[in-house]
Fold this protein.
Amino acid sequence: MNFGPLLFLGIFITFISAWIGLVFAPAASLKNVQATVVEGSTVANPRPYTGQELLGREIYQHNGCVYCHTQQVRGGTYNNDLERGWGSRRSNPQDYIYDRPVLLGTMRTGPDLANVGARLTNDNWHFTHFYDPQLITPGSMMAPISFLFELRPIGQTPAPDALKFNYVFITIAGDPGKALAELKTAGFNLVEQRGGRYVGGFDPAKGQELAKIPGVKSVEPYVPAGHEIVPTEDARNLVAYVKSLDHSYEVPPAANYGRLK
Amino acid sequence: MSAPAPTETELVGDRLDPGGIQAQNTAQMLSERQAIDASCRAPVLLFLGSSVFWLMVGTILALLASIKLHTPTLHSNISFLTFGRVRPAHLDMVAFGWSAMVGLGVSIWTVCRLCRVPLRFPQMIVMAAIIWNIGVAAGLYGVLAGQSNSIEWIEFPQYATFTLFVAFAIVAIWTIMTFTQRREKHVYVSLWYIFASMFWFPWIYATVQVLMNSPYAVQGVPQEAIHWWFGHNTLGVFFTPMGLAAIYYLLPKVIGRPIHSYALSILGFWSLALFYNWAGAHHLIAGPIPAWLITMSIVSSVMMFIPVTTTAINHHLTAYQHLDMLKFSPVLRFVVFGAMAYTLVSFQGSMMSVRVLNEPFHFTHHTIAHAHLGLYGFYTMVMFGAVYYIMPRLTGREFFSAHLMRVHFWCVAIGIVLMFFTLTIGGAIQGLDWNQAKRPLHDLIKEQGFISGLEAWFDRFKARQDQPIPFMTVLHEVLPYLWIRTFSGILIFLGHSAFAILVFWNLFGGGVTRIRTMLWPQKVSA
């Protein structure tokens, strides 16, 4: 073991074996995976991303969504990925042919997103969720990405894509239980308590009634009066990308690895 | 005790062959080592000092990320403090800022000592340190400013990656130049490891950059096979060899006895070289890549039992008879802790790679615990020991406070043990409740008490439930563990602060002139 070239040769050989096995072999064996054309049509699955979706993908990468969300429905024996409704089949090499880089992910602080575009299709849902995830899912552990939105005074006319935000903060004096029950009948849909105030959705038609309920000290709109929340271009691109995530098409049976029995 | 205890420098020579130890401690050997240390002063201290700075940056980012995992709305309106940027910034700072720089600094010094040549071409090393620092700073800016590419371990934008590559190439070339000019014919085991990592790392780094993050990227999922081949190898063939090299050097040095079995260390090295390289694809368990790849990686992960067992026998049997020295030598304390963590984390890793555990535990905090035990419990602890050993020899000054050393050791030791067990248990509950349990463990314990609740939980294990426990329920079940993790993070932050004060105080002129190792005088008086 005192001979330098021999040491070098050993280090080289052990390393090149793994290089051939884990780098070269998969790249060579999967390089011809292609989109499949649905019979009798010109639809190919998967489809390439649009320009806007690719821009949104960059926002997804830059803000590190991948550190909490995976994009793979696993096969295998010891997990519940399919049972959670995250996909109709396990993910397949074909699903990723347009991904550069492939963002499979390693952590699930949030749910899997491989088919999120098939589950959640409403733009306003996504915008509201990105701006304040806890409004949509109370107790969510998602970091809001409100910095992709602009809170600004309404100009002459409201922006067409401003968020439709019917949420209020309510301060209650005394026993909250009774007041909350009455608020509920008046159309107030409690989401959660934030620092002594109750935040929730309400029916704009009955907005005036809320303040008159006994025990309600104040009602403040979520968006300050005369203001609006407008998604930036980055936010719109990101939503376009997230909505494009849909691997629910069928793949040829030969290419579908299925589950291990 | 009649005679004063010997200093560490007097204890052993560099060849570590049994029987020849005392014979080598001639005045000539001592002056040779002093000349080597003097030549290493500026270049190696530049590496070590910078690494401690990045360690503090990485620790603060870690705390922030940890808090954001249970309190997601904290500072969420500030783009560069969002979790998805702080989390990769933390990883890159502790990996490329701290771990790589301290490892390179320690390795450069070890190479000079083991080749028995003073550091030649110090300009190369100084230049490499400066370029590396620029690369890490640029990368930190890139990730926080939102230029990350979200490929774990190589989030840095390409300008930073390229800068790091240039700096590493300089160090690697310097290592080969020094190796060819060596005056010691015998190539000690530490040198094999350092030599191997200097060769392996540039290759894996270049491969992943070209095949994943450039116009020549391969199409589709093979990218991920390459990604985790790289990700696992960063630990396996870059950090681990440098950490093992430091243990193999420091343990006999401090104890004053040769390693237990030199033949075993040869087996350990070559089996690590063979199996660790193949282990990466177990990160893609049940994912959309061919199953044979994953199976190959699981097999070689389990085969890692061989190098780990041999290394464990060597380390622990060398240290076993001299554990009383743990009381007096801070170096030994950190190094032995690191060696024990290496054994534990490797055996755990082999077992975790097997499908029945890998599938449910993947995507949970269980993996995070494992990663921290490896890169922190093993690698970082060993490097702490190495810095404590090397710095006084380079600056010619002792560390000014033994109390702060103890604060450092106990804070980080308790911190990492607490973090490891908390996240291991929390992550196991998370994974099994998501994937195999019929009802959440915490509910069952609340209803039936601890023992029978636990029994009922295990009783109902079955993969593929028709109605899995809701995702959110399990997420909230893990929250208490995440709070404890933040607490352990605060402990580790305190420990690192003590360490940084010691290092920078020593670097900028504090502390008495070095005579003997810090904690020895106590043994004399006792």
User: Anything to note?
Assistant: The mean pLDDT of chain B is 89. Residues 27-70 of chain B form the longest helix (44 residues).
